[in-house]
Amino acid sequence: MQLQDIIATLIGSGLAALWDYLSAHVLLCLVPAFFISGAFSALVPTSTIMKYMGGVAGRRQVAVAYGFAALSGLVLEVCSCTILPLFAGIWKKGAGFGPAITFLFAGPGITLLSTPLAAVVIGVDFAIIKLILSIIIAVAIGVTMEKLFGEERVQEERGSLVSGDTNVEKVEGPTRTQSAVFFSVLTMVMIFGTAPVDLLTKTLLVVATSVVTAIVGVTVYDRRALEAWMMETLRFFKLIFPILLVGVFASGVVFPLVPPELIVSLAGTNSLGGNLFSVLFGTIAYFPTLVEVPIADMFLQLGMHRGPLMAYLIADPAISIQTLLVVNRIMKPARTLGYGGLLIVFSVAAGLLYGMF
Q1: DSSP state for residue 289 in the 8-state scheme
Q2: Averaged confidence pLDDT in the chain
Q3: I want to staple 308 with a disulfide (CB 3.0 to 4.6 A). Which of 272, 278, 334, 338 is the partner?
Q4: Where exactly are the structural domains of the chain?
Q5: Are 293 and 260 within 8 A, CB to CB?
Q6: What pLDDT was estimated at residue 345?
């Protein structure tokens, strides 16, 4: 095959990845996430975020913050791309740096649906241990990032997100119950958008909950608050979405260069290299939520060791090229490298540990 043919094939693979991503993922999953992040930024009082995810005063509050962040994925059921605007929204609004990082990992890495699916496809013991290890790693990464960089040294990044913010907290707002109802129906839009049902059912559920959200929104909030919500949603979209597309295209280009046979040959034993290769493959190869489980089953049947398989399943949902590109834009290179490096190290360590038994 000539060079121009190879280049054309790789570009075609990148464009195909973009097409699949935009047609099957964005409209029903990622778009609601932008609206949720915009709503968090514009409509939720800072005191509310600080109450549950501030994690800066006292051991009890720290435990609540990390626990709340680590278990968020059991409710949200999102992928590594959809979590990005949500992460930006809660961090900007006052979440502690460590809990926010835990939330960034846990959103896609600890999901309610992937656990029973992994139990059916791979095994109950495997699924339970994977869930436990993922929760431990989520908290460990958040705590380590907090220790490495410190809350007082990340205010400039949070400040860059706050610029241009529209403050609506001074306006007399809805009651706590009204806000809870609004955010519940808004979150249901995204939950239905990621539900494992056929496209028609999913679309009908998303449209229905979107209409309910709109009705509740105009009933509960005034015009100024709604305009602020739309402005914040648009700002997060412009901040994140273009870089996300670049990452998806890059993943599509790189993926054909890594044949499955190579993965199995390098990850057939529970070695440091095998676990590292599995994690790096998970970083390069982006799969929508839950798709990583049947992919892992295929690797298992081809001969991949269960240790590297564990490392792959922990890392793949939480990290990808596009994730790191967007995170870099939100919190700068040093912290991005720290997050990516810690995720890789902890995933490899988990795979090695599990593979010993």
Answers
A1: T
A2: 82
A3: 278
A4: 3-173+221-355
A5: no
A6: 96
Position 171 confidence tier, pLDDT thresholds 50, 70, 90: very low
Cα separation of 119 and 116, whole Å?
Answer: 5
Q: Which of 281 and 174 is assigned the larger pLDDT?
A: 281
Burial code (b: 16+ CB inside 10 Å, e: under 16) for 279-310 equals bbbbbbbbbbbbebbebbbebbeeebbbbbbb
* Amino acid, single-letter form, for residue 101: I
Supply the DSSP symbol for 151: G
Q: What is the mean pLDDT of residues 119-132?
A: 89
> In whole angstroms, what is the distance from residue 32 CA to residue 230 CA?
12
Q: What percent of the chain has pLDDT over 90?
A: 27
CB under 8 Å to 209, separation ≥6 — which residues? 185, 188, 189, 192
Q: Give the Cα separation of 267 and 276 in Å (integer).
A: 9
DSSP class of residue 56 equals: -
Do residues 66 and 17 make contact, with C-beta atoms less than 8 angstroms apart? no
Three-point CA angle 110, 114, 118, nearest 5°? 120
> Which tokens sit at 336?
């991005």
Give the residue-averaged pLDDT of 178-198: 85
Q: Which residue did the predictor score with more confidence, 110 or 260?
A: 110
Q: Residue 216 — very low, low, confident or very high, per pLDDT cuts 50/70/90? A: very high
Question: In whole angstroms, what separates CA 63 from the centre of its chain?
Answer: 21
Lowest mean pLDDT among 125-134, 221-230, 254-263: 254-263
- Distance (Å, whole) CA 25 – CA 350: 30
Question: In terms of DSSP H, where are the helices of 54-175?
Answer: 59-70, 73-76, 83-92, 97-109, 114-121, 124-149, 155-162
Q: Are 91 and 83 in contact (CB under 8 A)?
A: no
Closest among 182, 178, 158 to 40, alpha carbons compared: 182
**Residue 332 and residue 157 in contact, taking contact as beta carbons nearer than 8 Å:** yes
- Per-residue pLDDT band for 102 (boundaries 50, 70, 90) equals very high
Task: Return d(Cα 331, Cα 154) in angstroms, integer.
Answer: 8
DSSP state of 218: H
